[in-house]
Amino acid sequence: MERTSTKNIKIKGNVITKSANGYTFYTEEIFYNSQMRKIISPGKIRMIGPPDEQGDSMKLGGYNMHILVDINEMKIFKDIKAVKKMNSTQDLKIASELATFSGKNKEAHFENNVLLNYGSMLIKGPDCYFIYSANMKSLERIDVKGGVELIDKKRRATSQDLVVDLYKTTIKLTGNPKIYQDQDEISGEEIFLLDGGK
After folding, report:
1. Are 156 and 173 within 8 A, CB to CB?
2. pTM attached to this predicted model
3. Rounded to 10 degrees, what is the CA torsion of 158, 160, 164, 165?
4. Rounded to whole angstroms, how far apart are CA atoms 38 and 31?
5. What pLDDT score was predicted for residue 72?
6. List of the chain residues with pLDDT < 50
């Protein structure tokens, strides 16, 4: 650990950073800038999220982490790939170019070229939010916003927004939603896919 007269700190070698709400970050080095009140790790990051009622913690890899100390927020800026085991048979996989995690709650925000694999479906969109229950013990829903495309083996769907309700196992498409299957097109104000999209 290096410390300077400016109160900046540099730590190298198997660095572990933990947030108060259960996120753990592993990296090779971090820098603390006391003027900006920011912790920076420019290299590869591995993160393990806090456990919840659905199963294992979220596991994430990426590069270039910034922790904004005053607002208790962690941002990872490059090549994000994450996996969240939802039950014994299904993984939720996500990729994006930016991920933000709150140190105050478990909610996560993925941005820029978001790809979400849920069951047999691929969901694409610019913004994706993981919303937890009020007691923060389980992932309640996934909101994808800003122009969404859903693709599976049988069909393709588009809408402005999409909500995956993990309790009801429904997918709701809103904002000019359309489903294309074979040569057919279905549209409406809201479209619901039931039983997890089956």
Report:
1. no
2. 0.85
3. -130
4. 8
5. 82
6. 2-4
